[in-house]
Each structure stands twice: as structure tokens, then as C-alpha cells.
Amino acid sequence: MRRLALALLIMILNVTAFFVGGGLLHLLFYRRRAASAAAWKYQPEKTVSRAAAWRMVPLVLLNGMIVNGAIGAAVALIVGGYTKAFFSLEEHSAWYAALSTAAVFVWYHVMLYYWHRRMHRPDLFRRFHHLHHKHKAPIWLDALYEHPLEAAWGGVVILTPIFLFPIWAPGYFAFLAVMGAHEVLDHAGIKLDLPIPFLSRSRGHDEHHRRSNVYFGQLLPLLDRLHKTDGRPGA
């Protein structure tokens, strides 16, 4: 019962943080700096109306519960000792702790890159992924504006690695924080990035919404470079 309560609490706190954080970001830029959009917005000539944004909220809330339900479950299971995650560096070296943290970032990137490219097949795009591409110039709500099947897959990707190999728990929690903030910034349409090396730039995902055939990666730029889907000539 305590683990369930912890999972639910984390889900509620994360969903609340998403709406509060994203809402404040929107207020600071889209409302207070609207007149200077050309200075901070990737596609200043395009916008999402307030009415359209409000219509997105029910689906965003549902998907937020799905994804953050998985995150809450992951944290509760780690705390309860039901996974391969570890806290003490006496169990594994500091080098292994760092490598396992990096591995989670790579896992997330690989599992979502190929899924994302598959979702751009015409049949799957029409059936599922078209929702996420409703706006050519996305706003922060688009981070969770997608078909619930895609949100569920994201939850599976987040939850799975703690059962596959030993992961340093603080590193995994750091991954969750970076992943959540990165997803919001990726879709905010704002020239603003987390100051963390190796992360993909928010411009890339904004360009993905504009063109659809480039920048499929999430968090990292590795596979976009490998598969030449990073917007270079010929992409």
C-alpha cells in the first residue's frame, strides 16, 4: 500500500510540475514577450491559439498520467528494492555508476528513435502519430499531446531498464529529471536548451515538426547523425 501511495504521489507531483512549469514558460515568453517573438521563437510567424491549447488539455492530462504513472511506479519499485537499481557505490564502482547512468540515456534514445521513425510510416502516421504533428510550430503541451499508445510506449521505455541491468538509482533519477525538462523545452518552440553536453538541441525537434522527415531522436543526437536524419543536405 505504501508503494502504491508513493507511486500515485509522484505521478500527481510530476503532472502538476509539468503544467505549472510549462505554463510559466508559456507565460514568460508567449504572453509577456509576444511582441519580440522573432528574437526567441523558432517559428515566430506561427502560433497556437488559446482555444486550441485548451482543447489539448484533456489528452495531455491523460498521457501525463500514463507516463508519470510509469515514473511513479519505477521510483516506488526502486525504493522498495524490487529492481536492479542500487544506491550504494560499495556494490559497484563509481565508473560503473556513471556508465549505467549514461546507458539509460542511450537506451531511451535508441528505443524511441526507431519507434518514432516507424510511426512516420503513412499507415501508422494516419492512425496514431498525426495527433502529435497537429501543430507545425509546437508549444509545451505538445510534449504530451499524442496518441495514448505512444505515451504508453514511452512509459514502457522509461520503466524497463531498471529490470534489465544494475543502474545507479541517483543517476536514474537524474535521467528522469533531465528527460522531463528536455521534452518540455523540445516542444516549447523557444530558443532555449539545457546546458548539458551531448543533449540534442531544441531547434532540432522544432524543425522535425516543421518538416517531419528530420530529427527523429529524443534526448541525444546520436542516431540522427548515424542515419543522416539530422537535417544535413540530402536528409
What does this structure look like?
The chain is an all-alpha fold and 235 residues long. It has one domain. 63% of the residues lie in helices and 0% in strands. The chain has ten helices and no strands.
Index terms:
single chain; 235 residues; mainly alpha; 63% helix
User: Number of folding domains?
Assistant: 1
What percentage of residues falls in helices of 4 or more residues? 55-70%
Biggest sheet statistics: none
> What amount of the residues lies in strands?
under 5%
Question: What count of helical segments does DSSP give?
Answer: 10
Outline the secondary-structure elements:
Layout: H1 2-31, H2 37-40, H3 50-80, H4 94-119, H5 122-127, H6 148-159, H7 161-164, H8 169-187, H9 202-211, H10 222-226
Helix pairs in contact: 1-3, 3-6, 4-8, 8-9
What is the compact description of this entry?
The chain has helices at residues 2-31, 37-40, 50-80, 94-119, 122-127, 148-159, 161-164, 169-187, 202-211, 222-226.
